[in-house]
Amino acid sequence: MSFPKVFMWGAASASYQIEGGAYEDGKGLSIWDKFSHEPGKTYEGHNGDIACDSYHRFEEDLDLMQSMGIRHYRFSISWPRVIPEGTGQVNEAGLAYYDQLVEGCLKRGIEPWITLFHWDLPLALYHRGGWLNRDTAYAFAEYARLIAGHFKEKVTRYMTINEPQCIIGMGHGTGLHAPGTLLSEEDMFLSWHHVLLAHGLAVKVIRDMIPDSMIGLASTGALAYTDKKDIETPEDLVKASFLSLPKNQNPGWYFNHQWFLDPCIFGHYPEDPESVWTPYKNDVDPEDLKIISQPIDFIGLNIYNGSEMIPKKEGPGYVYAPKYPGYPRTALKWPVTPGVMYWGPRLIHERYGLPVIITENGQSCNDKIYLDGKVHDPDRIDFLARYLGELKKACEDDIPVLAYFHWALTDNFEWYSGYDDRFGLIYLDYRDGSRIPKDSALWYKDVIMGNGEDL
Ligand code: GCO
User: Fold this and answer.
1) Is 163 in the active site?
2) What is the DSSP track for 313-356?
């Protein structure tokens, strides 16, 4: 079997990265509205005030999706657009925007997939302690109740949280992301725990309100891979994917799946001796872990790259492959490692036993408008052909992969890189907001039409 007949092909976006309309119709501020306006935080001071102006131009985006044959759209809701202060008063105008977006999807035959939290925390909640404050988790549950109640007749697919790894790791560890306030490891762990609690509470709320819903989350982190596929999963690959190195060997160690997925699926934090958070995990209330581990339907994976491993020269086992000078990289200098698209879903499925959805994958290119007025991006097409080819092999090996969402639908605000990095299938001319489908958009259309058979 190749891609299953019912495989779902989609594209993804996130509210702060595309919407703009930052101060319109009663929207409250988010931590990103504040952070992106602080000097030195983003590339050339770029911010999301206007972004792709999808707040006004979403119909164009949906038309383009429809013409590309994309039938699944993953977007996020801006919490402060619908509840400006994070709790309490609902902003009807904000909800009306998402009503139009959802209606626009449905009338074009596009299934909406809602991500509840893609990082734009209401600033008012940050001022009350943000994720360090346990109440934020309960505020999130109320926000989930609003959204699930409002959309229950129309939307059945939900993702709670996108990447605690970035929310906490970059928001409070490196400070490269909003809110950018550095916390001690102990407070980072506590904040992490509250994000997970928010997830669990929201799953329960959505499930109660929409029994036939499909609920997941979106995780990112280290994954290892190797060229060999026709063998049992090498233990070294499992270790490299799910065991932390000492922090001095891997400062970005919180980019891992196990500290997110183990509690959400197994109901306990991982056995991870080298992790700097291990000392704190025993303080956690077991009742919290019961909430956190509400059953979910799929694991969303945001996969961009992984670490290659090769068999040891002598004896059994695997070691990291050395990187040779000039190895393939994207415009953002991320390694191009297609093998992770086979092994990532496989490793995650073998560990957690749930179906997998690729909630993000793509590459940044230095796209530009050519003399002929088009945007040619052979680099992205080559990247996708390689990665999707590996995903197809995972399907052939019966790894239950249900869907693939390309990141991103359009170029957009790439966090601290501002508009300097382009991930879209659709080019955004930020001078006037016009959209130009890139060659990769046409290519992806063919992939969807053929259900990936030619990959
Ligand atoms: C992430 C986010 C996206 C990014 C994308 C490219 O994974 O960091 O979910 O918002 O824009 O991954 O960096």
Assistant:
1) yes
2) SSSS-EEEPPPPTT--B-TT--B--TTHHHHHHHHHHHHH-S-E
Q: Where are the domains of the chain?
A: 8-449
DSSP result, 436-447 = EE-HHHHHHHHH
Whether ligand 1 lies within 6 angstroms of the CB of 225 is answered as no
* Cα 73 to middle of ligand 1, angstroms: 16
Beta strands in 146-272 (DSSP E): 157-162, 214-219, 224-225
CA of 314 to the centre of ligand 1 (A): 39
Could you identify the atom of ligand 1 that is nearest to the CA of residue 332? 13
- Helix, coil or strand: residue 170: helix
Distance 283 CA to ligand 1 centre (A): 32
314: annotated active-site residue: no
pLDDT tens digit string along 300-319?
999 999 999 999 999 899 99
pLDDT band of 173, cuts 50, 70, 90: very high
Helix axes 378-396, 340-352, angle to 10 degrees: 40
Res 229 pLDDT > 80: no
Strand ranges for 91-238 from DSSP E: 111-117, 157-162, 214-219, 224-225
Q: Does domain 8-449 have CATH number 3.20.20.80?
A: yes
